[in-house]
Amino acid sequence: MPGISAAQQLETAVIKASLAHAAAGTVRPERIVSEGNILESVDIGGDSIFAKQAELVRTAKKEVIIQTFAWDPGSPGAKMILDALLDALHSSQQQASSSNASHERLRVRLLINEGTGFAQKFMRLTSANKNRSGPGRWPSHPEALVGNFKKSSEHKYAPLTRDLDFQVRVHQHSSSNSIHAKSVIVDGARAAVTGANVQSRNHGENPAYDFGITVSGPSALGMRDNFTAAWNGAVNPDQETTPLPEELDFTPETAASSSTKGLRMAVLTRRPDWNLLNTNNENPQNSAFLAAVSTAQHTIQIMTPNFNSPALVQALANAANRGVRVEVLLSKGFNDERVKNTIAGGTNKSAASRLSRSVKKKEFLDVRYFKNPMMPDNPVPNGNSAGNGASHAKFMAVDGALVIVGSSNMDKTSWHFSGEMNLGFFDAGATRQIKGSVFDPAWAHSEAV
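== PLD phosphodiesterase domain-containing protein ==
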């Protein structure tokens, strides 16, 4: 397009594609794209990810909403968040005691995924970890989610379920239509987004390689739309809960005080779909990914634990064949038992082979297996067992001008079955910061497939 820069063309294509299919996502069209946002941090590793989430939670005055695919109340990450909720509760109580004004309890909503029936059996049978047993369902009353299974009034976290407006819901699914998004949103103004689950495997001597980002600004309201849609479609057999209103009953502080243009961002989502034959890409997430790859002129970098989306494999091949340098960083053997079937789409190795066969200009394609830069002397992690240091990071950068990060893997499950949420940053500085923190160190240490 004459007079329009390559970066502007890329931004226009991605935004147009995502808005065209807004109805298949979870965010209202007017909240998908926003300006005035700030990238506060890029946090590498579970300790840093959940410490930053805890820092956000401590600032809460009105509302904390948390969603995750997996929540282990005994994990270091969960304890960081729960300790932060205690601090927020104490701050709220102190403020109430020093004021004559009426006081509302801090609203806390925790949404977790729960596979049932076939979905539960399949996940356990194909787990990379040796302990595949478990109850029919874990209790989902609030006390259980803070680790107070006996509902003791003396438990450290008993004040959270007693003195906060603390509700839990679970997204129950018997097919592959899970909720896979992970986020913490505070007061509709600040948010932390990650691919990491709240699990012990993200901590310790050899944790999974993952990252989170923290932002503030109006994009938090788009992310809240995503949470609200999931919450209002979820249930809890163990607690009476209430729907979450789409509109806040208070004004987010950053929305009232922001005076700078800040970053333009997009909240890119897709709704969960139970249909195991679904191949539709007409949703904000998939269409944004495909528009970005199709519009790329110079470089594409992708980092994903799972890779087999047919549409993406073909789009990357087309990009390489038109002279775009394509760099793909995969986790070796990740979830092979779970994905080596037609419905799930096949292993990373098989997808990499399909991609290579489709590329005629081989000099423009480089596919590598992840080697953990935090433990450079260790071999390439193979598989997805806890404690092997494999990468669980999800990342795409295009032309140094756009970066998309969040919960979505580049596989059939994330593209066609599960509910996902990602953030797109239309900014060279943000792209450089995230890419330099997440992708570049891992790429430099990794090995050719």
